[in-house]
Amino acid sequence: MSTTKLIPKAGAGQAASGRTGDKVFSGAALTAGALIVAVLFAVALFLIVQALPTFSAAAADITGGKGFFSYIFPIVVGTLIAATIALLIATPIGVAVALFISHYAPRSLARGLGYVVDLLAAIPSVVYGAWGASFLASNLKVPYQWLAENLGWIPIFGGPASGTGKTILTAGIVLAVMVLPIIASLTREIFLQAPMLHQEAALALGATRWEMIRMAVLPFARGGIISAVMLGLGRALGETMAVALVLSSGPLIASLIRSGNQTIAAEIALDFPEAFGLRMHELIAAGLVLFLITLAVNMVARWIINRHKEFSGAN
């Protein structure tokens, strides 16, 4: 009488184990995503609840005595001006540095430059602020005076120039130095991921190196460049200590080379430790405004990136 042994199929145990691992990983990823949304909602809820007394208070009780809008408007403008100056300076330089490291520099030099860029991104912001306040500001007094004397007819360079060099333009330059490594580092990684087949095909058709970069690398990296710039903008909008060390509080001004003005993050950092009562709620309301500005910037950036999502290195 013959007996038949049941032999399990090869790989059945591994398949079941793989499905279990997929379920565990999927559940962990879902939990992490939900946690992020919950934390973001909790932060927004806290800011709204704590800011409500400011919105319902009488205008005379708000700092400045003219209402919350008159208080927040100058520091919102200062925040946006400083961040805009930083991006205008850092974006072209950062992209150029990334392009040099990824496509022009010799391999040995590119590796060293990459380490230097990453190291610059790790320097604490207070170091940048101290450098800006003690060295950069004092060395910009003469250029500011020249701008006021020769280009003072342009509103943004109208005098009198600051005698200390601590202006919104100085703060913007410091922020540019801070966000430049972020933009350069992320953009370099995007450039290195550009499809090599596209680059070789362009060169084989007779394109110069710059033409190859313009036709094959930059279109592929467009979304990544925008993402890098938005990350730099986020740091510039929320930077605290560097701006606090460079700027001093003052009224809203139209010129970039006069003393005065402040940013939201620096205003909160300088005044919150001693704030109480309605003043504390004012600063939290200012934080809510910065939160909304950052959220709006990220939404616009996501919309821009989605418009260019159709391009892929595989098509």
Account of the 3D structure:
With 315 residues, the protein is an all-alpha fold. 73% of the residues lie in helices and 0% in strands. The chain has eleven helices and no strands. The longest helix has 45 residues. 33% of the residues are buried.
List the topology elements.
Layout: H1 12-56, H2 68-104, H3 107-121, H4 125-139, H5 141-150, H6 168-192, H7 196-204, H8 209-238, H9 241-246, H10 264-271, H11 278-307
Helix pairs in contact: 1-11, 2-3, 2-6, 2-8, 3-6, 4-6, 6-8, 7-8, 8-11, 10-11
Domain ABC transmembrane type-1: 76-301
Transmembrane segments: 24-48, 68-101, 113-137, 168-191, 212-233, 283-305
GO cellular component, one term: plasma membrane
